[in-house]
Specification:
The chain has 279 residues and is of the alpha+beta class. 18% of the residues lie in helices and 39% in strands. It has one domain: Lipoprotein localisation LolA/LolB/LppX (outer membrane lipoprotein receptor (LolB), chain A, Clam). It contains 3 helices and 16 strands.
Length: 279
């Protein structure tokens, strides 16, 4: 039987312990540090960094504007322009409710019956073409209204614009952009994410601090869409836009808001359009 001398074994064990201390422990420490730094990836929210307390207060005020407005009804006109086609100018009526539900009815004449309706809640997008009896029902996606409108915008984001708030954007840091050479009377807030850079630009009026525009960017820095709200007016104590203009790579939309009735009582069932009944 061949044995290993005790001194040799002890020396080998000592060398192994040193190697483990030098290589393994730093690796484990680095791994723990990496995991803790990526806590946001694992579902734990990371603290948003603001360049100043004033910027943080401004963002809080913008994202909670008209927070007490739970539902509304409205009427006006919607002008949709797809690149390379003639604009479609349609009288429309709509209803909206938290948390981002919308339903639009488009008419050929202001007092006539709807010729096309589309609606969305948190789960479903439904639409009905009354003239051709075509019905659509699908799950809401990131660009939930792009099937029917020439701008890729989520239903909840359009709802936010209609109640005077910027769309929801995931960001890690917010800071004021340096003043530009052309002073258009607005302040620009840059929304940024780690590893992506700027994902959004929010414009507010420098004299009133009211939200007046936004531009969202995709992962490559290209514009998803830009929105501008004009003619802010006070209706039953709420500050609401009179006009919303959306533009993207494929076209534009203008929502002219002629009347708004805030605080309307609206059933959740209204935001799912039923399929047409067979003759």
């Amino acid at each position: 039987m061949i044995g290993i001398p005790f001194d040799s074994a002890r020396h080998g064990l000592y060398r192994f312990s040193c190697v483990r201390f030098v290589i393994v422990y730093p690796f484990l420490a680095g791994l723990i540090f990496f995991i803790s730094g990526c806590a946001g990836w694992l579902g734990q929210p990371m603290e948003i960094q603001y360049d100043s307390e004033a910027t943080q207060q401004l963002m809080n005020r913008l994202t909670t504007a008209n927070a007490g407005l739970e539902a509304f009804r409205g009427k006006g006109r919607v002008i949709a322009h797809m690149q390379g086609t003639r604009p479609i100018n349609s009288p429309a009526a709509w209803v909206g409710a938290e948390p981002g539900r919308l339903r639009f009815a488009f008419r050929s004449i202001p007092a006539g019956p709807p010729v096309f309706e589309m609606s969305c809640d948190e789960v479903w997008l439904t639409a009905l073409d009354y003239q051709e009896q075509k019905y659509v029902k699908r799950k809401v996606g990131n660009n939930s209204l792009s099937s029917f409108l020439p701008v890729s915008i989520k239903c909840a984001d359009l709802f936010g614009l209609m109640v005077g708030r910027p769309p929801e954007v995931d960001y890690d840091a917010a800071r004021l952009a340096p003043p530009g050479s052309d002073d258009d009377g607005t302040i620009v807030i840059l929304l940024q994410r780690r590893f992506r850079g700027t994902v959004g630009r929010i414009r507010v009026m420098s004299d009133t601090g009211e939200f007046c525009g936004v531009e969202l960017l995709d992962i490559h820095g290209n514009r998803l869409y830009a929105a501008r709200v004009d003619g802010m007016q006070t209706v039953d104590g709420y500050r609401l836009p009179a006009r919303i203009m959306l533009s993207g790579p494929e076209g534009s939309i203008e929502v002219e808001i002629q009347r708004t009735w805030p605080g309307a009582s609206i059933s959740e069932n209204l935001f799912q359009i039923a399929p047409p009944r067979p003759d």
